[in-house]
Amino acid sequence: xxxxxxxxxxxxxxxxxxxxxxxxxxxxxxxxxxxxxxxxxxxxxxxxxxxxxxxxxxxxxxxxxxxxxxxxxxxxxxxxxxxxxxxxxxxxxxxxxxxxxxxxxxxxxxxxxxxxxxxxxxxxxxxxxxxxxxxxxxxxxxxxxxxxxxxxxxxxxxxxxxxxxxxxxxxxxxxxxxxxxxxxxxxxxxxxxxxxxxxxxxxxxxxxxxxxxxxxxxxxxxxxxxxxxxxxxxxxxxxxxxxxxxxxxxxxxxxxxxx
Length: 259
What we know:
Blueprint: E1 2-3, E2 8-12, E3 15-18, H1 19-41, H2 49-71, H3 73-78, H4 93-110, H5 115-133, H6 135-140, E4 153-155, E5 168-169, H7 172-190, H8 199-215, E6 223-225, E7 228-229, H9 230-250, H10 255-258
Parallel strand pairs: 1-4
Antiparallel strand pairs: 2-3, 4-5, 6-7
């Protein structure tokens, strides 16, 4: 597969409208719409829901960009202004998941809403939005893997983020999009069967993190510890968070509650 498309659709002064930005925005809109729909289906009706959704989006963007910049620190310290150019690509999805989760949980808690029930409502929309957002990587050349002699994607446009033009790379972003859609289908099938608040979100976070950990072996980013890349270390942290999120639901009822 050969991509020779300018990642930028048009320039608006110092800013740019990119295919990546369109994909991420579309994914965010779809994810928020589905999350609000699920919240109302679960009987959570509040004027604060839209505000919480904005906090999730803001926290997700900050977390995603921050982790991407940390992973490519030398690139951005040489040209700090590029940190703001998110329309060119460069969002670490695990940073978005963790940042959005933290911001949403705090916002829901401050609004007096059930955090765990809201997390379950958000889970299917979150993974669907991630899948849609991955389409943007097709145009930017972001999130590619190793060079390959088999099926791969080759970038020719100088605006692409691929390590080298004219070289076929593993389309890891497509693999991840497929995994995201599989996780979405799983969540959608079981969302009415899990009776304890928080379990659906834990399932989402755990399944996504396992896939992210395994698929990152196809990537060639900076190795941090024990041969693992940043995304893999964060995936392990997300798995630990998913386990911790389920712990209250595994506790036996207290004697007072059992009476």
